[in-house]
Task: inverse folding
């Protein structure tokens, strides 16, 4: 399963392109900046999430550059070198505070079979967008949801995200179902907003707000009758 | 009336990850990167911003009526000069265009229109505008918006043009609706202004829709 219009192809138009000049806006205070040096590792019985590493490249190529995974996302790299370039880009933009790319490692394994990406939509990381791709062998295994929970905790608690968006092609039923399961709210349909294989697709726009995530995660925090 | 950031640093164009999305149809023309063509309408001309517009822009954008639904504009003439220089650099890179709205018979702008790419090659883009409140209700918006939409669709090659406007910004939303934009959704808490979080409407115009819609603005084609 995969969603997000994130492109797995590194570098020609880095995320920062509009962010270069202009009126400087200060980084938001109080947000922990340590993650820029290296992402934390989350180890749970169901999944380990950690910074993506160079040695993940062959495994990511095998798991993600296949049609059932990639058909609704921007074309992933087609070579190990391509993935290495992508991973280098992830590290560079992580150091710049613009993106966080987690590798999904199943229990009893040490190599990535999927990715979760977070990227800033504003200079303070208050609004962000996420995307994910998981090898099809792991669909239906619970790996997605276990990973998504850790990634969402990281986004809202560590990055200080207030609003997290996701986009998924309307025809991507599995990706949209996965997003709904995390508690994301469908806010609209962006007509013809995604170009893939010679065709424009409509995309569903989803979002999760920090306060909703906290309510959902900690039912005691705001009990609904 | 207004939308979008005067502040380029916010909401960078990023929806895309690292890179360009797959090569979609190429832009119609790239000459505008060397300098924006002036566009002449019935009541206004759209032309490139000049450094000497800075003081005028400061006067237009600072009042609460104009600024309350956009990201905080610069607060000094020097700040607007840096903004104008930034618009020229971004235009030269081919990812952004900012037009001054100059009514016929005047030489100073009364507002701006911005256009920026949301993905490589300007296939999808976002627009925004700000018009000084003394100049509301004179038809300048519609005239300028037509020129800008024609430019986006015919010259730049935009396929999908988005706009975001605070839900509370009735005038801005009305202006977008009037141009034929379709309301696609409400982005919850997507805009923070002076510590307050606001919801925004997202609007979009597709190129083929605009090609049909503009007929109604053109008396020669109307029935």
Result:
């Amino acid at each position: 399963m995969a969603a997000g219009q994130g492109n797995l192809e590194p570098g020609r138009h880095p995320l920062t392109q509009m962010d270069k000049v202009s009126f400087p806006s200060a980084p938001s205070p109080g947000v922990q900046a340590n993650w820029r040096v290296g992402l934390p590792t989350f180890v749970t019985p169901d999944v380990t999430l950690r910074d993506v590493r160079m040695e993940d490249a062959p495994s990511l190529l095998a798991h993600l550059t296949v049609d059932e995974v990639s058909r609704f996302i921007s074309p992933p790299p087609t070579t190990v070198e391509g993935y290495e370039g992508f991973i280098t880009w992830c590290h560079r933009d992580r150091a710049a505070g613009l993106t966080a790319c987690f590798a999904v490692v199943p229990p009893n394994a040490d190599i990535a079979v999927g990715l979760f990406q977070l990227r800033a939509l504003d200079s303070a990381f208050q609004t962000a967008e996420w995307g994910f791709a998981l090898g099809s062998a792991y669909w239906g295994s619970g790996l997605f949801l276990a990973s998504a929970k850790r990634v969402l905790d990281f986004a809202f608690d560590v990055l200080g995200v207030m609003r997290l968006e996701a986009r998924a092609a309307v025809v991507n039923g599995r990706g949209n179902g996965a997003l709904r399961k995390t508690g994301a709210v469908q806010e609209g349909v962006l007509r013809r907003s995604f170009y893939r294989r010679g065709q424009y697709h409509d995309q569903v726009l989803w979002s999760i707000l920090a306060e909703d995530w906290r309510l959902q995660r900690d039912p005691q925090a705001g009990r609904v009758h | 009336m207004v939308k979008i950031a005067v502040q380029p640093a916010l909401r960078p164009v990023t929806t895309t990850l690292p890179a360009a999305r797959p090569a979609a149809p190429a832009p119609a023309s790239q000459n505008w990167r060397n300098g924006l063509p002036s566009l002449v309408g019935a009541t206004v001309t759209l032309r490139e911003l000049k450094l000497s517009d800075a003081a005028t822009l400061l006067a237009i954008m600072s009042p609460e009526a104009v600024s309350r639904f956009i990201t905080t504009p610069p607060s000094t003439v020097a700040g607007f000069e840096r903004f104008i220089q930034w618009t020229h650099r971004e235009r030269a890179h081919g990812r952004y265009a900012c037009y001054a709205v100059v009514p016929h018979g005047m030489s100073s702008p009364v507002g701006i229109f911005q256009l920026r790419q949301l993905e490589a090659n300007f296939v999808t883009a976002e627009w925004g505008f700000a018009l000084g409140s003394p100049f509301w209700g004179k038809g300048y918006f519609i005239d300028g918006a037509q020129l800008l939409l024609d430019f986006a669709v015919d010259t730049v090659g935009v396929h999908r043009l988005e706009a975001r406007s605070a839900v509370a910004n009735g005038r801005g939303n009305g202006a977008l609706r009037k141009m034929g934009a379709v309301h696609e959704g409400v982005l919850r808490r997507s805009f923070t202004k002076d510590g307050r979080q606001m919801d925004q409407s997202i609007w979009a115009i597709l190129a083929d829709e605009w090609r049909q819609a503009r007929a109604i603005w053109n008396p020669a084609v109307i029935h």
